[in-house]
Design goal:
Blueprint (H helix, E strand, L loop, with lengths): L1 E2 H11 L4 E2 L9 E9 L4 H7 L4 E10 L2 E13 L2 E9 L1 H8 L12 H12 L3 E15 L4 E11 L14 E2 L5 E7 L6 H6 L12 H6 L11
């Protein structure tokens, strides 16, 4: 978690070291909106709060409020390593899932779709909260590094439709705070490591899902 002042300094340092992600718009950003799911025991939330090193969560994600690309994702965390599984959806499949028709995921020849189907049928995996923010992404080929600045984090509260035109997400984080993520496949080059480091900064968990869930006011930890 960094503040605006730290963000401007780090971004300036990175200027000649990395390049903007090709998927960003002309202003260097794109919009992300995700609908997170959890089961009847709220396992994803409780495991994150409990500090479990190995855990996973499910979400449907869209970009720039468009239905051209709709992805049902499973984010898997094993210690410090992260992997993702993705299943593309069309708008009709998305609407069916949102309306409780999970049979559209019953695809025996598609292991991940079947996993989602069984999670919904057996563990009552259901929509929980919308997470909404603006991302400013940068990439570097050396080490396949990806650095993102996630800004304007908002929550949809109890809304669950990503394409609801009347949805007006509310701020979930002070506007001065930005979540900086540094991801890499092979290694983190020393020159990038030095550029993103500042006195007082340290690696920490900053789950957007947990932050936004705090606004649902239906958890026994909400006022802690």
């Amino acid at each position: 978690m960094i503040n605006r002042h730290q963000y401007f300094i780090i971004r300036q340092r990175l200027k000649n070291l990395v390049r903007p992600d090709k998927y960003a718009s002309t202003n260097g950003e794109y919009h992300i909106r995700s609908l997170y799911f959890d089961d009847y025991e709220n396992s994803a939330l409780s495991e994150k709060l409990g500090g479990f090193r190995d855990r996973h969560k499910y979400r449907i994600r869209v970009y720039n409020r468009s239905d051209r690309l709709i992805l049902f994702e499973k984010k898997i965390k094993c210690g410090d390593y992260i992997a993702k599984l993705k299943e593309p959806l069309d708008r009709d499949m998305y609407e069916a899932i949102l309306n409780g028709n999970y049979e559209v995921l019953h695809q025996p020849d598609n292991p991940f779709a079947m996993e989602l189907y069984l999670e919904m049928k057996q563990h009552l995996l259901r929509p929980r909260v919308i997470v909404d923010y603006v991302r400013e992404p940068y990439v570097c080929e050396n080490g396949n590094v990806r650095i993102t600045f996630d800004k304007e984090l908002r929550t949809g509260l109890h809304a669950t439709d990503l394409f609801d035109q009347s949805l007006n997400p509310v701020p979930a984080l002070d506007e001065q705070h930005i979540i900086m993520e540094v991801k890499y496949d092979e290694y983190l080059p020393e020159y990038i490591k030095a550029a993103v480091q500042m006195e007082g900064l340290h690696q920490q968990a900053a789950s957007k899902y947990v932050i936004c869930c705090k606004y649902l006011k239906n958890n026994n930890w909400e006022d802690q």
